[in-house]
Amino acid sequence: MKNIYGLTYEELEQYFLQISDKKFRATQVYDWLYKKRVSSFLDMVNIKKEIKEQLEKDFTMKKLSILKKEEDTLVFKYLFELEDQNKIEAVLMQHDYGNSLCISTQVGCNMGCSFCESGRLKKRRNLETYEMVLQILMIEEDLHLKITHIVLMGIGEPFDNYANVLSFIDIVNCSKAMDIGSRHITLSTSGIVPKIREFSNYSKQVNLAISLHAPNNEKRSKLMQVNRAYPIEEVITAVKEYIEKNNRRVNFEYIMIKGDNVTK
Ligand code: SF4
Question: Where do the domains of the chain lie?
């Protein structure tokens, strides 16, 4: 059974048309899910009984399990367990400009960056859209705060789970759902060139970040296997095209690793 938190607004509208109901029902259901935050279809009191029963037959509202929560000054790290017992992490950081959540997009990761624990685990599977959405909802509910910024930089390569990641962005950005502005959403990639090009056609003004982490190809290929397929020059060319095309901001990330990438 599908989890309702994985449906974009348009998909929910289509669902209601399919069951011979009205499109506007999607607005009511989104309001209960994302504004009023009910945990049962039966609590959606302005929706007809037959429709609620149909929703119960077709969808689950099952949440993730919080296995562990660690706190430090203005930082909260969550370990979630998924329905199939796989585990993922999300980290909330409180800044003066807002609450920023770094979410996971996959279980494990195939990119194999040498400095990253997730890379050693290898990818087990992509996260479903609802599993990304619920990382936000559950942390907001647990800490009683509003998350204002999203960074797709936890476990996984977001461009390796492209379709689900775009649906996720659609839901969190939707004014009827979480309404997080697209300029407050940052997607971080290890540098998959064809996907940078594809993403340049995406309609939302989401920020892009590139994990660079080395000053040349020799060092970068040692740290990041992806560089053997897409070396620095190709990444930079794709980023220049991306900026020219849509005038969006691109950040470069660089972790300083003593003895590895601090000098040429
Ligand atoms: S792409 Fe990100 S999650 Fe994947 S191995 Fe590299 S640093 Fe780790």
Answer: 2-60, 65-253
CB-defined site of ligand 1, < 6 Å: 109, 111-113, 116, 118-119, 155-157, 190
Would you state the structure tokens that stand for residue 29, as one six-digit string? 């259901």
Query: Sheet of 75-81: strands edge to edge?
Result: 65-72, 75-81, 87-95, 98-103, 149-152, 185-189, 207-211, 250-253
Q: What CATH class does 2-60 carry?
A: mainly alpha
DSSP alpha helices (H): ranges in the chain? Answer: 9-18, 25-30, 49-58, 117-121, 129-143, 162-173, 193-199, 217-223, 226-229, 232-246
Tell me the fold of 65-253: TIM Barrel (3.20.20)
Question: Which mutation among 103, 105, 190, 257 tests ligand 1's pocket best, with the greatest number of atoms within 8 A of CB?
Answer: 190
Task: Indicate yes or no: pTM above 0.90.
Answer: yes
| Tens-binned pLDDT, residue by residue, of the chain (264 aa) | 999 999 999 999 999 999 999 999 999 999 999 999 999 999 999 999 999 999 999 999 999 999 999 999 999 999 999 999 999 999 999 999 999 999 999 999 999 899 888 777 789 999 999 999 999 999 999 999 999 999 999 999 999 999 999 999 999 999 999 999 999 999 999 999 999 999 999 989 999 999 999 999 999 999 999 999 999 999 999 999 999 998 887 999 998 888 777 877
Give residue 246 CA to ligand 1 midpoint distance, Å. 26
Nearest-CA neighbor of 214 among 194, 193, 236, 199? 236
Instruction: Provide the 10 A C-beta neighbour count for residue 93.
Output: 16
CA-wise closest residue to 6 among 161, 149, 189: 161
Rounded distance, CA 67 to CA 154, Å?
A: 17
